[in-house]
């Protein structure tokens, strides 16, 4: 067995993508084992690999970790992406939970019925531009630093960049009213490990295509 973390999930973003982002930002190479059909998931469930019968699952440091937030917390702590003290960690947690709320909305778009997609799109754009992005624009303005928390790279910065890039896939000019977030995006994208992850051929996953949705549903439901 290699020393690399091994990620078990379907070959798409979903709840594993924030974990891939954290590992990539930390410069950690990882392997992936894709759940491609219901039988693959059933096998993991039957062999006792999945504590709650669900993926994502990450094999790391002799553990089979499940629950995406627990996995992300562990990786962020291990690779010094979780602030310098308890107060910084609390800020990071608040920011990240807000980002994950928006992420859920972004990821669920392709799973909406056709007659609900237009309304869902409008809701996502409204929440991104009126609830979530103004918060982070103000944070950057108020402290005048390059990173969200503690003036050093943390998981909050990594997850915000991921969220911004997904939101721009929805609406390319979604940051039009947020100049500090535009600068933040350029700055964080240029960190060498992240720049590498954003290159073609990396393990970053593309947006799910509509024709792939039934396959994913068949695996998990």
From TrEMBL:
Domain of life: Eukaryota
N-terminal signal peptide: none
Coiled coil: none
InterPro entries, sorted: Glutathione-S-Trfase_C-like, Glutathione-S-Trfase_C_sf, Glutathione_S-Trfase, Glutathione_S-Trfase_N, GST_alpha, GST_C, GST_superfamily, Thioredoxin-like_sf
Ranges where the GST N-terminal domain occurs: 3-83
Record-listed E.C. numbers: 2.5.1.18
MF-aspect GO terms: glutathione transferase activity
Protein name: glutathione transferase
Organism (species): Pipra filicauda
């Amino acid at each position: 067995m290699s020393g690399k973390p091994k990620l078990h999930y379907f070959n798409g973003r979903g709840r594993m993508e924030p974990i891939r982002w954290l590992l990539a930002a930390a410069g950690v190479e990882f392997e992936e084992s894709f759940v491609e059909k219901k039988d693959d998931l059933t096998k993991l469930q039957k062999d006792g690999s999945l504590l709650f019968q669900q993926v994502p699952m990450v094999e790391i440091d002799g553990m089979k970790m499940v629950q995406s937030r627990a996995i992300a917390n562990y990786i962020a702590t291990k690779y010094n992406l979780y602030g310098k003290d308890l107060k910084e960690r609390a800020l990071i947690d608040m920011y990240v939970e807000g980002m994950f709320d928006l992420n859920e909305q972004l990821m669920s778009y392709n799973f909406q019925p056709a007659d609900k997609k237009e309304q869902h799109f409008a809701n996502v754009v409204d929440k991104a531009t009126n609830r979530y992005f103004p918060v982070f624009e103000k944070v950057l303005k108020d402290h005048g630093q390059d990173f969200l928390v503690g003036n050093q790279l943390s998981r909050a910065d990594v997850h915000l960049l991921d969220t911004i890039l997904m939101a721009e896939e929805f609406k390319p000019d979604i940051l039009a009213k947020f100049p500090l977030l535009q600068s933040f995006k350029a700055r964080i994208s240029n960190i060498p490990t992240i720049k590498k992850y954003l290159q073609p051929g990396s393990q970053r996953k593309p947006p799910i295509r509509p024709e792939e949705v039934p396959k994913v549903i068949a695996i998990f439901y």
